[in-house]
């Protein structure tokens, strides 16, 4: 009988931290350093334009920044394409932190494809709930929201748009970091109790974090979609467009996860469960790296770019 393995976090805080994960202090240090170094070398201009822009232009057949969203059909198509193009942007990189906790859940050869769809479905549920609600809000009152503004950033000041991004991604980054600490046993597992009744609670929560990217996202193509949804005054269009944007954000990651589960799920599950702390360690590393990167990039490095703090190390190609 195919079954879903228990989450590496649920109900095993002490085991993961004290008896299961070896050298957890070293893992925490190296993961934190890796997240920090990623903020140093990350070039938003290259990722947004060279990668995201190329993907969007190839799919749309023209420059996405000049796309005229003159109808619901063109707007929804643009929503999905721009979401797909934004897979590897700085605001979306934390999606990779959701993969490891799900990989360990597929442990049966028979029906692996079906089993792989289950955690993806719960992830999508959490993501859709936030995307749809926020999109509807934008369709109703978006023209008065900070994200609607096209004002240029001023050195020494934080615009409302920047503050919204900092708060949103700060919360997302710290949430992922906390879950990573929980996997190592440093903090209490927030899903220990609800996980007993609803084992997919953490996966749904990760979906909520992914959906929350839209609340702070400054990605140019998304802001173009945001302004179109806000000016439409139609909450149903806003909800559907933002849902498609989120689907595009996670599609590549979902396909990779599905392929891993289908072709190597048995081997991955066997490797994960061979050592009692291995699954917790892999989960912790991905969440801590993603969480540290998200928080430092959007809350500390941003302050340096706005010249509010004197300095933050940035590689020459990323400056």
Largest sheet: none
Distance between the termini: 54 Å
Q: Roughly what is the average pLDDT, rounded to an integer?
A: 81
Classification by helices and strands: mainly alpha
Tell the overall outline: globular
Q: Strand share of the residues? A: under 5%
Count of individual beta strands: 0
Q: Which regions have little confidence, pLDDT < 50, spanning 5+ residues? A: 1-19
Question: What's the number of helices?
Answer: 12
The sequence of SSEs as H and E is HHHHHHHHHHHH
In helices, the fraction of residues equals 55-70%
Rg over alpha carbons: 20 Å
What's the helix and strand layout?
Layout: H1 13-20, H2 24-41, H3 44-60, H4 72-85, H5 99-103, H6 112-141, H7 160-184, H8 192-197, H9 201-216, H10 220-232, H11 235-274, H12 278-305
Helix pairs in contact: 2-12, 3-4, 4-10, 4-11, 6-9, 6-10, 6-11, 7-9, 7-12, 10-11
């Amino acid at each position: 009988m195919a079954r879903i393995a228990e989450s590496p976090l649920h109900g095993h805080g002490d085991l993961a931290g004290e008896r299961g994960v070896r050298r957890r202090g070293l893992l925490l240090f190296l993961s934190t350093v890796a997240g920090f170094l990623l903020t140093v070398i990350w070039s938003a201009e290259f990722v947004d334009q060279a990668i995201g822009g190329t993907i969007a232009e190839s799919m749309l057949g023209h420059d996405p920044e000049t796309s005229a969203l003159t109808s619901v059909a063109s707007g929804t198509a643009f929503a999905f394409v721009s979401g797909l193009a934004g897979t590897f942007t700085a605001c979306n990189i934390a999606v990779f932190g959701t993969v490891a906790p799900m990989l360990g859940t597929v442990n049966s050869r028979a029906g692996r494809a079906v089993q792989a769809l289950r955690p993806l479905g719960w992830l999508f549920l959490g993501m859709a709930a936030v995307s749809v609600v926020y999109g509807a809000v934008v369709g109703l009152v978006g023209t008065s929201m900070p994200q609607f503004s096209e004002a240029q950033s001023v050195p020494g000041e934080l615009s409302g748009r920047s503050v919204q991004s900092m708060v949103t991604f700060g919360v997302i980054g710290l949430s992922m970091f906390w879950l990573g600490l929980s996997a190592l046993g440093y903090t209490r597992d927030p899903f220990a109790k609800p996980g007993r009744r609803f084992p997919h609670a953490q996966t749904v929560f990760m979906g909520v974090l992914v959906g929350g990217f839209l609340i702070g996202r400054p990605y140019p193509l998304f802001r173009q979609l945001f302004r179109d949804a806000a000016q439409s005054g139609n909450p149903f269009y806003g909800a559907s467009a933002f849902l498609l944007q989120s689907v595009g954000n996670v599609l590549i990651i979902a396909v990779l996860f599905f392929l891993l589960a289908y072709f190597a799920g048995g081997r991955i599950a066997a490797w994960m469960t061979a050592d009692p702390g291995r699954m917790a360690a892999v989960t912790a590393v991905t969440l801590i790296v993603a969480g540290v990167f998200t928080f430092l990039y959007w809350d500390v490095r941003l302050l340096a770019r706005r010249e509010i703090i004197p300095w933050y190390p940035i590689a020459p190609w990323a400056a």
